[in-house]
Design a protein that fits this description.
single chain, alpha+beta, Jelly Rolls, globular
Length: 273
């Protein structure tokens, strides 16, 4: 009887120790893991949450819907966003982390299917000093545009090339590397225009007057049509990277990170047990 009582006390003590140890084991919080250190924004338009569109880079810059943006099943990779004229995603530019704002290079990549050949802004930001620092656009004069500016409004490059087409999916990719001193515009994976940097200064480094997807900060050049797989980087992508994203999207990268997160969580639970 005494032996049984001693064993019972031992087992209870062992259980309490195990429970205490479990409480000390930290399961990694991977809910906001960054997909890539240079990826600033990624909208695959697969997840709408009320009046916001969920941003997938891991940085948490969800877009607030202004106007009428709806989810479409006719995307290049799954779903897409359908923008009505005058509608846009507000990214709360003044509150974007300064370290996330591209200054030494920038790439903007997206699939677009515009309703008409007219001036349409894919993305736009304006600095506190009134500098319009980027213009990725489908143009009403029949081509596409890719531009960056330095603080004070000095143009680094301004490429206008390619053939703007309505009612079909077009892959747009503008890249710029300050270290290489070169900007390139790719349409459907093909280099349609490039320009050496006119100045050596960095891209304007704040989004103090806002950042939007789908219209300029002054409400001009509204994007009207479908958009899918929008991603913005703080470096110049290579031609191979542009074509890989065009053909495969960033979904494979996202899937790999999600798999890693699940593995880390599972491993944490196993260790706690």
């Amino acid at each position: 009887m005494k032996w049984n009582l001693t064993l019972t006390r031992y087992l209870v003590a062992l259980f309490l120790i195990g429970t205490f140890c479990m409480s000390l084991v930290e399961v990694p919080d991977t809910s906001a893991e960054i997909l890539d250190p240079d990826l600033v924004l990624y909208f695959d338009y697969e997840d709408f949450d009320g009046n916001t569109v969920v941003e997938k880079s891991g940085r948490g810059y969800d877009g607030e819907i202004n106007g009428n943006i709806t989810q479409s099943d006719d995307g290049k990779f799954g779903k897409a966003a359908l923008f009505e004229a005058g509608s846009f995603l507000d990214l709360d530019g003044p509150n974007v982390n300064k370290d996330d704002i591209p200054t030494e290079g920038m790439s903007i990549v997206a699939w677009i299917n515009v309703e008409a050949v007219s001036d349409m802004a894919l993305f736009n930001t304006r600095a506190a000093d009134n500098t319009w620092l980027v213009h990725p656009e489908a143009r009403g004069d029949g081509n596409y545009r890719w531009l960056n500016r330095s603080p004070g409004g000095t143009t680094i490059f301004d490429i206008r090339a390619g053939e703007n087409k309505a009612n079909e999916w077009i892959h747009y990719a503008g890249t710029f590397s300050r270290s290489d001193g070169l900007a390139v515009l790719y349409i459907n994976g093909v280099n349609v225009g490039e320009e050496e940097a006119r100045v050596g200064t960095p891209i304007a480094g704040d989004w103090g007057q806002g950042a939007r997807i789908g219209v300029n900060i002054d409400d001009n050049r509204p994007f009207t049509g479908l958009m899918d797989e929008f991603n913005l980087w703080k470096r110049g992508l290579s031609e191979d990277e542009v074509n890989d994203i065009m053909n495969n999207g960033l979904g494979t990268l996202l899937t790999a990170v999600e798999a890693h997160n699940k593995l880390a969580t599972t491993w944490g639970r196993l260790k706690s047990n």
